[in-house]
Amino acid sequence: MERISWHQYFMAQSHLLALRSTCTRLMVGASIVRDKRIIAGGYNGSISGGSHCSEDGCYLVDDHCARTIHAEVNAIIQCAKFGVATEGSEIYVTHFPCLNCCKAIIQAGIRKIYYAADYKNHPFAEELFRESGVSVEQVELEEMILDTNNKEKLAFTAELLGKLEKTGMPEKELQKMRNKANELFIHTS
Ligand SMILES: [Zn+2]
Ligand SMILES: [Zn+2]
């Protein structure tokens, strides 16, 4: 049995949260961690009870969605709402934080940022993190832990199998490949 690392565990949590995003422009998730415990989580979404971008479309102002509260800020606000200290904590985010989130993170006393994917990394955000001594480290989610593009892989494999069929490959071999694909994509055990 192989245990997953703390990094992978917390990053996987943020990727799960990202799946709850309601803004269609970018699905982001963030988890705030202190002493190896998740103290808060957030994703890109509207205010509670507000209309969702996924239903009513984004409210664009200067090419930014004004409706959305970013995942990092949502997680920090959750701490404010329930009175949980963020001082000295760490944050795991699926994407490099934008400038506004960068400032909120620094101001909340979060000391370490782990992000999975680069995203329009703003040089001023990088500078502010450096100046304030917040460490920034990229931690990519290992595919094995949470397969985030399973549907695409399935579609691609189906297309490949369809093309193989047209090449005149013997039915017996084709069947073997179909069986293998089924085994990989459909977990029935
Ligand atoms: Zn939006
Ligand atoms: Zn942001």
Main CATH class of the largest domain:
Alpha Beta
In total, the number of strands is 7
If you consult CATH, what is the topology of the largest domain?
Cytidine Deaminase, domain 2
- What number is the mean pLDDT? 92
What string gives the helices and strands in order? HEEHEEHEHEHEHH
Number of domains: 2
Show unreliable segments: none
Count of helical regions: 7
Query: Which of globular, elongated, flat, extended, rod-shaped describes the shape?
Result: elongated
Q: Helical amount among residues, as a percent range?
A: 40-55%
Cα-atom radius of gyration? 21 Å
Strand order of the largest sheet: 2-1-5-6-7
Termini gap: 19 Å
Domain CMP/dCMP-type deaminase: 5-136
Pfam families: dCMP_cyt_deam_1
Keywords: Hydrolase, Metal-binding, Zinc
InterPro entries: APOBEC/CMP_deaminase_Zn-bd, CMP_dCMP_dom, Competence_ComEB, Cytidine_deaminase-like, dCMP_deaminase-rel, Deoxycytidylate_deaminase_dom
Question: Can you lay out the helices and strands and say which pair or pack?
Answer:
Layout: H1 6-18, E1 29-34, E2 37-43, H2 53-56, E3 60-61, E4 64-65, H3 71-82, E5 90-95, H4 99-107, E6 112-117, H5 123-131, E7 135-138, H6 150-166, H7 171-185
Parallel strand pairs: 5-6, 6-7
Antiparallel strand pairs: 1-2, 1-5, 3-4
Helix pairs in contact: 4-5, 6-7
Protein name: ComE operon protein 2
Cofactor: Zn(2+)
Family: Belongs to the cytidine and deoxycytidylate deaminase family.
